[in-house]
User: Fold this.
Amino acid sequence: MDAKVGDIVELRSRLWRVDSLEGDALAATNIEGGEIEQRHFFLPFETVRKANIEPPNPGILGDPASNKLLIQSYRYSMLHGAAPLLSLQRSSVIPTSYQLVPVVMALEKSNRVRMMIADDVGLGKTIEAGLIVAELMARNLASRILVVCPRNLREQWREALEYFFHIDARVISSMHRRVLERQLPPGASPWEHYRCLVASIDYVKKDPIKHQVLAIPWDLVIVDEAHLAAKPHQSGENQSVSMDRYDFVRELSARAKHLLFLTATPHNGYTDSYASLLRMLDGNLVSGPINEPKINRDLAREHICQRRRKDVEDWFKEHSEEENPFPERKQEEVLVDLIFDEEKQILRTLSSYGTKILDSAEGGSYKTQITAKWTVMHLHKRGISSPAALRQSLKNRKNKLLSKIKSAESEDQASLPFEQAKATVLDEDLGDDETDEEAYYKADRNVFGSLEANKAELAELEKLLPLAEKITPAKDSKLRKLTRDFLSQAISGYYGPAKIIIFTRYKDTLDYLEREIPRRLPESKSDIKIITVYGELNEAQRKERLNEFQRLEKGILIATDCISEGINLQHMANIMVHYELPWNPNRLEQRNGRIDRYGQKVPQVHIRTMVMSDTLDATILKVLVEKARRIREEFGFSPPFFGDDANVIDIIREQGIDVPSAQKKLIDFGEDSRSQEQINPFDEETIERIKSESFYGQSDVDFSEVRNRMKETEELIGSEEDFRNLVLNAFRKLGCTIEENHDFENTLHINFKNSQLTIPGHEDEIKRATFDPKLALQNKDIVQLNAGRPMVRKAIELVRQSVFEGKTANYGRTAAIATAAVQKVILLYHFLARFTVNTKPAGIIEEILPVACDLTGSDPLDSKEIEAIWRSRPEPMRRTREEILPHLKKAVDPAIYTPILQQRLDKRLEAIKQERAELKKKFDESDQLWLEGIDDVSQASTDLLSVTIYYPVTPRGANR
Assistant:
């Protein structure tokens, strides 16, 4: 076979474009009929011959509208076709320029991509990683992909890969696996069968799943929230830490060819823990023993893209034509003074009760004592969350005490291990084993001490419960403060759209707020719609409720931390309330990042945190949150927190902050029980260590030429109005009905009557459609018609396929148009031109090339003249079909167009080579394999798509 990359061949009675040739292996993309897909063939078993697309039929005078639609469809489907970044050709993402930096960095190491994207919260790490995935797939460097992430991010990853990058990703878990296996051949493994899987880290780390995953030769592994897989720091040899996540990811990383770590918080203040992530990326990045690592910064810089929000905002000021897309944050703490005696009494009594629990645990083991401390702190946090949460915790504890006394069990019964008891208090990740609500329930039921101590505690509890019942909603100072002040103003529109998100840690508090907020608001605002989202809902139910909230013009969303990560809420609201203060500032920042992020539609976001005066919350606010905010403002990152189970207490003591007397024993408890070294996240040495070992401001990649080339390619499509006309005309040509809804948003109702447009999993109509991306983001029931929409892609492809049909009705490959833009008969050709880029693997540039001349084939027009004619206004045609057909027959004669076509091809080839040479020169200061051969471009094949004859306008009755 004498065909080469970029040629058209006939194989199995269909036309294919040759994508690659390696020995007897041929990869080719079908261009004739059916869904476009790349297939692989073994040449000794195939009959292959060079071919071309049949030229236009000169015996058919086509329709001008269909002619224009055909060319627009080809142009649009080739968006980014000439851009060096192939991922853009295969995705519906047109990213902001700064998001291309990680892609270019990955291409520098495309033979083995090992990168950590450590951009700040809200900068688009998922999109950046997705572009790298698409780039590696487009270059045939990755096909088997695994995404490892926290459980609550699985669905977000599946949706992002499908919607933006058209990658069929499947979520796999103990529940999903049963469904996946029903679709498999007998005996097949889902890990081997499906090409792209998304799984939670706590699912894949366990036996026997772990060994099934490690047995697969993954081309690319993505680990999201990668800091969860760092090696835990050990303060001393005897400190017990969980290594399951680290051990699994370390083994998986060693087996994967390409590896991406994503995290906004890679450094926890401990060099050994941070370095463990770098060591997994590439062993050469770190030297020395595992407990005293030395980071090779010159090497590591090539593998890490780490930018603070400040870096990106500065980038927009200096390099971008766009305005800063990030909102201004207005954040305040709302101090709540207790104004009712009943509240003061219950908190005093609760503190006294906590002291008795600690006394009961004093005779137990160290772990028992520490677990008791976290249990009491848990009860304290429940008490200052809401009266409802406290009452439920006390009832749960009473039931556990009654059960233990009845069974005469004398041993301590910690329903929740001390590591998880600590995590419930410090708002840390609990993993997949238990939901937050399950952990809180178990923490309520941690009891300690002898039966006598338990009976004494039960007696105290019996006194405490009636006091808790006295705290009615009318005597709840925090609820009163929320509803009478900030919430009332927010609902009135004082801070912008009357859409408010309230976060609470506890489902009991969520139910309480849902019930009581409407009762406590002024009567004129009491009809406000309230939506709730919590952990017990499945993914579909959460999505349905979030969609409902987004559709509201005015409403309140009350949610637990099940949506504090991975769910983007910036299109739903710009106001957030933290009903309790998270003791982990990183958790607080994750929540804030749901609305304070790229794409927020309102210039300002308003965040309020409710803090009870004279409680541990107020102390935590002073010690952790305010200091963390100052450090973030000064350095652009948050300090690390809670390196071990005594850390928060030690920080409070070390900072010398006065603790409310009622909680002093809790803070002093176990003060001298440990001597291991602990980190102070506010210590200058710690902050300096993070600064010196991190890679903030990694934006020295010069990709201006890449972006300029992208802009040129995007301009080939035309304006937004051109795209709108293309899509709607394509739908109409395919028999769809389009009606205006005459609503405020000017949406369209589209009915897809053509069975060819039927796509499994998609309805056959869109009730409210728009081309405005902002409108669609702000209204969940409005569908944006964009390049990623399956119906749009299918319609454009069906129009393209009409090239291979010979129907006379709506024939688009020939046309005749009268226009005042020409003074003589002009032949306008559109060729499909292909060029081969001799990289490894070889690449293909495919473009629509317009060429124009007169009837003799001379006097070729330049690009500006061609564009003016193409966009000129058609006038009434006064020539008959019989007059036009002889001109059409002459136009398709290769002798007419070949000389000027070759001139145009030669000129375009030189222009491409020059662009690529300049690009290579910009980047070629270091060894970058993706540039090898990028300027070695040759002409491949060319096909004539259409001929349009433009006639000058002649007056009625004039001699033609």
